[in-house]
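Lab channel / #folding
Pinned by the channel admin:
"Please post every new chain as: sequence first, then the structure tokens as a reply. Keep commentary short and put observations after the output so the thread stays searchable."

First post following the new format, from NK:
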Amino acid sequence: MNKRVLFPIFLGLIVVTLVACLGGDGASDETTEPSAAVTTPTQVLATDVPSSTPVATAGELFLQLVAPAETEIFTAVSPMTVTGRTRVDAVVTINDAIVEPDIDGMFTLDVPLEEGPNIIEVVASVASNEQMDLVLVAIYEP
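Reply from TO:
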């Protein structure tokens, strides 16, 4: 074909493409307001939730007996529940039974008792080879 014929066709195609891309479809150019259902984004900030007791994950190793409150007791109930608190990352053993502390560092175990005196050893240890222990004497008289 002749250049004189191709140029107007090519120019017409460009104009039609531009009109189609720019939305020139003959409709009115009214703008609409967003509906009331549109929500605006909110910023969420993390906050610490205070615990009844501070959670210890570092620092010095500690071992606290919660129940029984005394290290020497007389009881008529077996098993006896031993409850305590230590660092969250500690491993606790009660008479060689492994007990894992919860997120607050609390641990608990029911220890069966034999009639007469019972020695209960509670040991907390961490990866740095620190270790603490408590010895309970529970005299069981059914």
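NK: Residues 92 and 99 are 5 Å apart (CA to CA).
TO: also worth noting, The helical segments are 3-21.
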